[in-house]
Design brief:
about 425 residues; alpha/beta; nine-stranded mixed β-sheet; 17 helices; 10 strands; SBP
Length: about 425
């Protein structure tokens, strides 16, 4: 979830609290399958992630180390998933500098299964077949290679909702009840109309939403087919659902409803506590991130309501083991444990990352979150997870999404004409994927 992150983990990882901004080189890189780092049989398992998966923050690494004396877990991370992926591709090509465990964002998993299966361990080798019934079918299938290889184990999924600041709503004279708001913004047009009302009476230096890129990302997450159709054909330019998401984002920019913040930037991080925006489209993994940025002072000021326009999914991730990993078996045992229902349940309760393990989904159905005004997050995100479409995943999903959100940023921050920005997105996609 992690942080995505959409998107920048968003995509973005998909994430929960701010992590180091620069990519740290992961340890490992040897093809040696030795299980010890020293004569004492001690093992250091390296984990390289993006955004925030929340394992360290939820205490799961410490728990695993306690259960497995001699094991030490060292994590490196990158906030921006696009930077992480670029670095990972370089290291995969060279076969060095790879961690024992690498995170894979859901928008990249098709690239792994269709183009890079030879660079990752088939986890069936370690008994992963026995875990199939533990995961939602779509989550398991997405990480299955063309030859039946199991190339990753699912972490979270990203059912969507809307997070909002009740104190800012009150100051602008808007209702704060989550059920009433869900009715008022049942459609995206209704959401933007309410944004116009907010803008008219908003507190100083406070916008309706953080960025139009997040609006686009959450809307496109409601669609089954986005960039590719089920046959693998690129359809993004002709997809009316994608164009609708684009048009609504442009409308929000033209109406001045956005705080014009780049997601995952320092300014965006600061805005959570500064009240720079009143709403933010939030997949489940965003809850932990908001808590981390808003701090204890934000407790009770935030709430969660159902999303306009129906259920959707934004983000979700996998844990994979590169063939160049130093400790493959130990890495598999770790990711098997981290993605088990018990640990996914703990992660949701502490960080908000919604589980992909079916047993965990049942366990969190009644969960509420005091930080978010005791919102019934188990119910809200659980229903969204059940109703969200099973999305068609393509090799270049993430690359295309990045080009579109870059173009929307031009509209939002530079005043670029929408059709010019669309043309720029098209050129960017062509240059990126050929």
């Amino acid at each position: 979830m992690p942080i995505a992150r959409a998107a920048k983990r968003a995509v973005v990882r998909l994430g929960a609290v701010t992590l180091a901004g620069a990519l740290l080189a992961a340890c490992g890189g040897s093809s040696d399958d030795s299980s010890s780092d020293s004569a004492g049989g001690k093992v250091t398992i390296t984990v390289d992630l993006f955004g925030s998966f929340g394992y360290k923050e939820a205490g799961l690494y410490a728990e695993y180390e306690k259960l497995h004396p001699g094991v030490t877990i060292k994590q490196t991370d990158t906030e921006d998933e696009a930077d992480y992926w670029k670095s990972l591709q370089t290291r995969l090509a060279g076969g060095a500098g790879l961690a024992d465990v690498q995170g894979i964002e859901v928008g990249r998993i098709a690239s792994v299964t269709q183009q890079q299966a030879d660079r990752f361990e088939d986890l069936k080798k370690y008994g992963a077949d026995s875990l199939k019934d533990q995961f939602a079918p779509a989550k398991w299938a997405a990480a299955t290679g063309r030859g039946g290889e199991v190339l990753g184990l699912g972490t979270d999924v990203g059912p969507e909702a809307m997070c909002y600041r009740t104190d800012l709503f009150e100051q602008a004279g808007l209702p704060t009840d989550r059920e009433e708001l869900a009715k008022k913004w049942a459609t995206w047009d209704g959401y933007l109309d309410l944004g116009e009302q907010y803008k008219a009476k908003a507190p100083a230096k406070s916008a309706w939403l953080d960025s139009v890129g997040s609006l686009y990302s959450i809307m496109i997450g409601q669609e089954k087919e986005r960039y590719y159709d089920a046959s693998g054909k690129l359809i993004w330019e002709q997809n009316p659902a994608l164009r609708s998401a684009w048009d609504h984002a442009v409308q929000a920019a033209d109406a001045g409803l956005s705080a014009k913040l780049d997601q995952w930037s320092p300014q965006w991080n600061q805005a959570f506590s500064a009240g720079s925006f009143a709403t933010i489209p939030c997949p489940a993994w965003m809850l932990g991130y908001i808590k981390g940025q808003a701090g204890e002072a934000g407790k009770g000021k935030w709430d969660v309501a159902e999303l306009p326009g129906g259920a959707g999914n934004w983000g979700g991730s996998y844990l994979a083991v590169p063939k160049a990993a130093k400790h493959k078996k130990e890495a598999y045992e770790l990711i098997k444990w981290l993605t088990a229902p018990e640990q996914q349940t703990k992660l949701f309760q502490k960080q908000g990352n919604f589980p992909s393990a079916t047993g965990a989904i049942e366990k969190v159905a009644d969960a509420k979150d005091p930080f978010f005004s005791n919102a019934p997050i188990g119910k809200i995100f659980g229903e969204a997870a059940k109703e969200a479409p099973v999305q068609v995943l393509g090799v270049h999903d993430q690359n295309i999404a990045q080009q579109i959100t870059n173009a929307l940023s031009e509209v939002e921050r530079k005043g670029t004409a929408p059709e010019k920005a669309w043309s720029n997105a098209k050129k960017g996609v062509e240059n990126t994927i050929g």
